[in-house]
Amino acid sequence: MEAAPLQISRMEGQSSGSVEEKTPKGIPGPGDSESMPASKKAKTGMEAGTNSNLAAGSADATNYRKRTIWNPKVVEHLRVCQGVSLLRCEEGGLCTRNMIPGKATYNGYITYVQEEDGTVVEYRPWNTFRSPLAAAIARAPEDIFVAPGFRVLYLGDGEGAIATVSHISDIIGTRGVVYEVESCLQNVAVLVNMAARRANVTPILEDARQPENYQAAILRKVDVVYCDMSYISEDEQVAILSKNVSLYLKDGGFFLLTYEAGDRNSSLYERRKRLHTALDAEKLFVIKDICLEPLILNAGLLFGVYRNASLI
């Protein structure tokens, strides 16, 4: 008899345990002290008493990176639609309001901002030069793709996925949930540690190509399905997105899909055109196509809506 697939998930409302969150290797963040000149460190407030002496690749920084105050100049306080509050900073990045004050996540940096009512709020930097979702929000802040209370199914893997999931967790808050389908056991272990602190994160150790295998972990339809797998072919991307959308996305829900040129023989325009054709065939209708340049070269993000054909 074939062994049942391993699923690491947590039902909503279940206790999260006491596992300590750790930082995956090699994820630098905005203001990372290893890559910043001395003048920049002084400008961003990375002074004595912070953790700026930890090199990004050192054993101490990898095993447990202590909270470091990163104090950038806030250029704009974005209060975008649906109650989401973000910061735009002079370094070009965004910041999300930390769902767990006092607890940093993947890069260890936090910043404090005084609100209009005098309260001091903690934010975490989000690298718009590495995260397609952050870049898309920075390019089109009027079109925020997730909101407080949303249920999000995230399909992606790698260290970048860990960062993205943590910021989605900040945005959706305690009333929302983000399911992260991850095929790498090492990354799932990191996500499990994150979920020990963030009750709205549910890691699932499975292959996104076989969405029927994790139906037991997702009991209700989600508001957003986000396919962040631009490194595979457009046909495979659309097939994965379509299967997951048909099983888990509610009628009228939204989908996100990131894409990139891929190789020298394929331009961004050509890949975009092929994706639009393939999505139309699956009845996935694109609302907006956002070019992520100059933040992320040769990359874009599609934002669309799903209409269940059986309900039309």
Automatic annotation (TrEMBL):
GO molecular function: histone H2AQ104 methyltransferase activity; RNA binding; rRNA methyltransferase activity
A Pfam family that the UniProt record links to this protein: Fibrillarin
Entry-linked InterPro entries: Fibrillarin, SAM-dependent_MTases_sf
Region Disordered, residue ranges: 1-56
Keyword Transferase: yes
Keywords, in A-Z order: Methyltransferase, RNA-binding, rRNA processing, Transferase
SUPFAM superfamilies assigned to the protein according to its UniProt record, in alphabetical order: S-adenosyl-L-methionine-dependent methyltransferases
Biological processes annotated in GO: box C/D sno(s)RNA 3'-end processing
Catalytic activity reported: L-glutaminyl-[histone H2A] + S-adenosyl-L-methionine = N(5)-methyl-L-glutaminyl-[histone H2A] + S-adenosyl-L-homocysteine + H(+)
Family: Belongs to the methyltransferase superfamily. Fibrillarin family.
Protein name: rRNA 2'-O-methyltransferase fibrillarin
High-level lineage: Eukaryota, Viridiplantae, Streptophyta, Embryophyta, Tracheophyta
